[in-house]
Each structure stands twice: as structure tokens, then as C-alpha cells.
Amino acid sequence: MTFNATPHLERRRRLLASMQAAGGGVAIIGTAPEVMRNRDADYPYRHDSYFHYLSGFTEPEAVMVLVAGPETRSILFCRDKNLEREIWDGYRFGPQAAQLEFAFDAAHPIEELDKSMPALLADAPAIFYSLGQDRSRDARLQDWLQGVRGLARSGVAAPGRIVDVNVLLDDMRLHKDAVEIDTMKRAGVISAEAHCRAMRLSRPGLREYHLEAELLHEFRRNGSQFPAYGSIVATGANACVLHYRAGDAELKDGDLVLIDAGCELDSYAADITRTFPANGRFSGPQRELYEIVLAAHAAAVAETAPGKRFMDGHDAAVRILAQGMLDTGLLDGNKLGSRDDVIEQGAYRQFYMHRTGHWLGMDVHDVGDYRDPPAADGSKPWRTLQPGMVLTIEPGIYVRPAEGVPEQYWNIGIRIEDDAHVTPGGCELLTTGVPSTVADIEALMRQGS
Ligand code: GLY
Ligand code: MN
Ligand code: MN
After folding, report:
1. Which of 139, 172, 205 is the last residue of a domain?
2. Given ligand 1 and candidates 417, 418, 419, 431, which is best to mutate, with the most ligand atoms within 8 Å of its CB?
3. Sign of dihedral through CA atoms 71, 48, 367, 317?
4. What is the pLDDT of residues 385-395, one digit of tens each?
5. Centre of ligand 1 from the C-alpha of residue 103, in Å
6. Which helix H or strand E contains 177, and what residues bound it?
7. Residues 293 and 273 sit within 8 Å (Cβ to Cβ)
8. Is 266 in the pocket of ligand 1 (CB under 6 A)?
9. How does pLDDT run across 426-444, given as a tens digit for each residue?
10. From the CB of 229, is ligand 1 less than 6 Å away?
């Protein structure tokens, strides 16, 4: 498949237009460093999301400089061709080929960056840069600024302001374009299929890592580059540890398995959770709590539409969960009062201690402000949902053993998580390829492998 530079070029154009509207200047955006794992072995390389959003370029050691002056220019600094290194580590574009492939106005070897920056920054009214993300790059920025000031005698002015470029980019990234939505749909389909595979193959006696292996198999055989985050495969009481990772616990007859896993495809994440019985049949108490979480999920989906606020889905889910906790005796209504009292006092947090969603995109917990700009009275209302935003919907119930908590629910942990794309008419779930009702899960599991 040939690379399509157009979406990235278009995003650079939009960023440059925002920079011009803010008085003009020069943006400096670098990619992520390579990180060593241990002696001679590095972590799998993952580019910086902002950098990739604007370039599509995946090699390490690259920086882009965007000049918003009377005219605009996009310049890429990247690794030079190097036959010796390419024999060991593989192909490098080099500046010449990278300029063409990724549609930059110019490209130069990364070694020339320090020498070029003072001239590029000369007379720029502002630097658009995100301070505090990369200590060594911040230090280099100081050197570049000193370099510009060194040119002062030749009548050159140093930039007077630093603007956080990520603030502009966060808002762009929050509103996905059609290419991004298409990629996220494909990531959702692959991830849903991986969950189906794990469900079908589940049986008592297997271990958590066996199901993790099935997820990875499905991700990778469909071209996903990585899991989007460390897969959670948690059986029994482990499901009540929110950030548990797939371990070696055995799947026991009668226990539930909670899987929270999604693939990263072409830099975009999916994020799905399903909870199912290891043996294919929900017990009575498991089913009771499952139906409450499923109803909370449906209530949150119904509140995910343009004009609704980010927290409306959470509030709707909490109303269902709190009522369910009272109905099942997880919470004692005689002591705590009504559903609204339980919500008011936050008593439901004993069993539901996280939010119902987050932005999703290139990063699993994606960028974007969760609040609208402050209102006239200084209040900061929750973000109003708009078409093109993508967020997760992930209510749950986690019951740790405790005095006063009915024993039949102890150690049950349930979460149901889907990825919702806000559309003009409401929202579209990208991850429905894996069942979520009790009947559909049990039917899929009866099919077996
Ligand atoms: N998998 C991380 C989350 O659900 O937020
Ligand atoms: Mn998740
Ligand atoms: Mn999530």
C-alpha cells in the first residue's frame, strides 16, 4: 500500500493557519526517543503521536519545523542514509526520499538541526513548542535561543513568546477526520475479533496468559503493530484490581474472566473490555451484577450524542449502578437512604471507583480538554460532545470482600467497555463485533474453538 501523505499535509496546513492567526512563528515538534530495555535490547520503538499526526513519519531521531511567516514552510530533519546502519537496523528514508514521500517543503539530515535552528528562529514572533516533555530537547531549545540572541548585532530579534503547540494540536486531535475514523473502525473490528477468539477458547484450567496469547495472535495476524496498552486478563478476584495485567492465574470453574485489551493499528488505539464466565455459563449472582452493568452501559450510550456533555454518560451510568447496588443489597438502603443519597454521598464508589469514559485516539487515554472554555461566571462546564469525537463507555462493578457485603457477590469484577464515535445523530459503537449480552456471550462460548 502506498503511503498517503494528504491527511498529514492537510493537518500541517491547519496548524500553520492557527499559528498565523496567533501572530505567526515557528513550531518545533520532535518524535519520541528510542528507549533501552536492558543491555543491547531496546523497547519496541513507538513514534510520538503528535509528530506522527502531522507527518506520518515513523523513524526515530526526527524533528519537524513549521514556519508560519508571510509564507509557510514545513521542514523535516531526519536520519541520513547510512548503508552500514541500514544493514543492521533496516531501511531509512534519508532526507531526499522523506521529503518526497511525506510531502515536506524541505528535508535535511538531523545532524544539521542545531546549526539551522538559530537562523530559522531569527525574527520569529513566537516559538510554538511544548516545554517540559523532553528535558534534553528543552536544553537544546535554550542553546538555539542563545544562538539567535548571538545574531542580535546583525539586527535579528529573538522570539518573544513560547506558545504550547500541544494546546492547538490537542483540539485538532480530539476531532477525528474521516481517515482517522476509518482506521479506528478497523482497529475496533480486529480487537473485537480478538475478544471473540479469547471467549471461544476459554475453559477452566487455562491460565490468564493463554488468553493473552490468543489476543496477541489475533492482533498481529491482522496487521496490528502492538497492543494499544498492556492487556488485562484477570480471572476471579484479580478482576477487582483495576490495573491488573495478564498474569499466570488459573481460570477456575465458576469464576469470571475480565479482559480489557485493544490493538493499536496504524497508530490508533481500540479499547475494549468484556467479562465472561470461564466455563461459558454465568452463575445467578454474576448474571445479576452483569445485567446492572449492561444497563448502565446502555444508559451511557444513550447520553453520547452531539450537544450532550462529556459527563452525562457517566452520570446516567452511575444512576443505574447506584440503584442496582441498592437492589442487590451491595449497599444498604436502610443506612444510606435513596439512590440520590447514595450518589450525593459517593457511597457507590465502594464498587465503582472510576469514570465511565475517556477520549480515545492515537493514545488510549487520548488528548483533548475535558472541559469547555470557562463560562462568564468562571465555571468550566464539561465538554460538549461534537461529531468526530471518540470516547470509551466503560461502566463496571468491582466487589471486594467486606463486612456487610453479601457474600455471593464477593470477588466479582465486571466491566463492559466499547468505543463510541459521536455522529450527527448520536453515536456509533466501533466495537460491537464482540457480543456483550449474557445470551450472546453464552451462545458464542458454546461454539467453542
Ligand atoms: N484500558 C484502559 C482503559 O480502559 O482506560
Ligand atoms: Mn480498557
Ligand atoms: Mn478505557
Report:
1. 172
2. 417
3. positive
4. 999 999 999 99
5. 35
6. none
7. no
8. no
9. 999 999 999 999 999 999 9
10. yes
